[in-house]
Amino acid sequence: MIDMVPAVTVVLLCVAALAAGWVDAVVGGGGVIQLPALLVGLPNTDIASISGTNKMSSCAGTAVATGTYLSKIAVHVPTAVIVVVCAYLGSTGGAHLVQYVPRVVFTPLVGVAVAVIGVYVWRTRTLGQETHLRLSTAKHRLSAGVIGLVCGVWDGLVGPGTGIFLVLGFVVILGYGFLPATALAKVANLTTNIAALVVLGIQGHVLWGLGACMAAANVVGGAIGSRMAIAKGNSFIRKVFLVAVGLVEIKLVYDTIRLILG
Q1: Would residue 233 be called left, alpha or beta, if left means φ above 0 and alpha means ψ between -120 and 50 degrees?
Q2: Which CA distances in Å does 91 have to 56, 189, 204?
Q3: What digits encode the pLDDT tens for the residues 188-234?
Q4: pLDDT digit string (tens) for 162-175?
Q5: What are the residue ranges spanned by the domains of the chain?
Q6: Distance (Å, whole) CA 96 – CA 203
């Protein structure tokens, strides 16, 4: 057993981490698979430790995906710097708050986030097909900073959907196309994951053995997914996202009902 977790559970969580790494690299939001899997697989573990273990795994896969995107797609460095700084500050603050969020609140919150994201993408079929920046330089950078800060707090506190929230912010508010928005989102999401992991690791809220196993699986998924996303483009990204969100939402609704009734 790893961190006193049964071997079968470790294997299943690693499979979930591989799938999450793939989804996260393709479209972002791999946490909608990995975090619910941890919530189900570790029912007696505190939320802070689940979040910390999730961050350890996500950091590894996101780092690989980020490197792949940056090798193929250029990002605007000044915008990226602002997003990174604000995202780090936001995630650090959110991570300090996560230990105070009870499971009965946490699970429904994840479910609502997943549902909102899925409905929005499903209804907006032409979203992010091309880049048409909408704001002046000053407003562009200010908006980018706000997006990074808000999404950083969300990632440190809750987690799932951060990559998608970042992409949607960069596409809807700033006017980027999906691929450049995803590349920038990967840089920001890696930052938020690292910031939260630092806080939760220092506080002792990481199952290091399990996290290492899941991280290895997440890296494999991230490497495969990022290459497929770049090769196949926006239509493929959108389809994968909607399928993943639909399946996870069904499970989260079930878990929420069980928590309320139990």
Answers
A1: left
A2: 14, 10, 17
A3: 989 988 988 998 899 999 999 999 999 999 999 999 988 888 888 76
A4: 888 888 889 888 88
A5: 7-261
A6: 9
Q: Mark 73-97 as b/e (b = at least 16 C-beta within 10 Å).
A: eebbeebbebbbebbbbbbbbbbee
List all residues 6 or more positions away from 214 whose beta carbon is below 8 Å from its beta carbon. 13, 14, 16, 17, 34, 53, 56, 57
pTM of the model as a whole:
0.79
Residue-by-residue DSSP string for the chain: -BTTB-HHHHHHHHHHHHHHHHHHHHTS-THHHHHHHHHHH-TTS-HHHHHHHHHHHHHHHHHHHHHHHHHHS---HHHHHHHHHHHHHHHHHHHHHGGGS-HHHHHHHHHHHHHHHHHHHHH-TTTTSS----S-HHHHHHHHHHHHHHHHHHHHHT-TTHHHHHHHIIIIII---HHHHHHHHHHHHHHHHHHHHHHHHHTT---HHHHHHHHHHHHHHHHHHHHHHHHH-HHHHHHHHHHHHHHHHHHHHHHHHHHHH-
Which positions ≥6 away from 41 have C-beta within 8 Å? 5, 9, 12, 13, 16
Q: Which of 183, 186, 215 is nearest to 201 (CA)?
A: 215
Ramachandran angles phi, psi of 2, nearest 5°: -110, 125
Closest CA to 208 of 34, 61, 3: 3
